[in-house]
Q: What sequence folds into this?
């Protein structure tokens, strides 16, 4: 069973507008969540994270929101730029799981100029 | 700093052949991981090594073996390759203080015919 789900395989956004990528999880043990970004022919790179004690974390143009009651998190990119076009993976973990991550299937973001 | 390096970048095998994927990191990280990425399935953990001298199975270990040769190197071996092992393989590592922020290598694209 998929514990971390990214239900939108792709998203297309105009440059300068907001991109919202969504992620749902089923395991209530998860207490740490991350977003990774991946360009073609490269490995994923860490983008931003959030602990379950917070509901928002911001880093420049990137903000992650966590709704624990809905088991839902989202990544907002404002304003979107063509260089943001990539695959975005949501990931989750919890302390007893060690340093392992459970990844979602990814969402392809295309930012059109 | 090269970060996480993987060799080879590409490989084509015939069913039944064996090969070893190499991974090395120069960041003095304790934990290392092997993932496979398949379309629509995100990144799935094959094996991981929490520290030098220890290895554990991940989500999809069947058909693979690993060796944590030293703190820097973590290799993945396919003893008898099968077409189902056609995938992109990523190695990753993390430091003790930021255990969830994994640093990934560029990947190895493996095709088994």
A:
């Amino acid at each position: 069973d998929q514990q971390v789900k990214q239900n939108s395989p792709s998203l297309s956004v105009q440059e300068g507008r907001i991109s919202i990528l969504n992620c749902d999880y089923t395991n209530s043990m998860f207490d740490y969540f991350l977003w990774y970004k991946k360009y073609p022919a490269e490995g994923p790179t860490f983008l931003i994270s959030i602990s379950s004690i917070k509901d928002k974390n911001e880093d420049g143009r990137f903000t992650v929101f966590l709704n624990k009651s809905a088991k839902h998190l989202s990544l907002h990119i404002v304003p979107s730029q063509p260089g943001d076009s990539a695959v975005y993976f949501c990931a989750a973990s919890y302390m007893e799981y060690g340093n392992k991550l459970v990844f979602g299937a990814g969402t392809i973001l295309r930012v059109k100029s | 700093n090269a970060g996480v390096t993987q060799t080879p970048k590409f490989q084509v095998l015939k069913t039944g052949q064996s090969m070893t994927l190499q991974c090395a990191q120069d960041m003095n990280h304790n934990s290392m991981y092997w993932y496979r990425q398949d379309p629509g399935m995100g990144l799935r953990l094959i094996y991981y090594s929490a520290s030098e001298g220890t290895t554990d199975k991940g989500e999809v270990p069947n058909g693979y073996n690993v060796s944590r040769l030293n703190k820097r190197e973590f290799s993945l071996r396919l003893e008898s390759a099968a077409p189902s092992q056609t995938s992109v393989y990523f190695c990753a590592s993390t430091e003790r203080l930021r255990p969830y922020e994994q640093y990934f290598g560029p990947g190895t694209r493996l095709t088994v015919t």
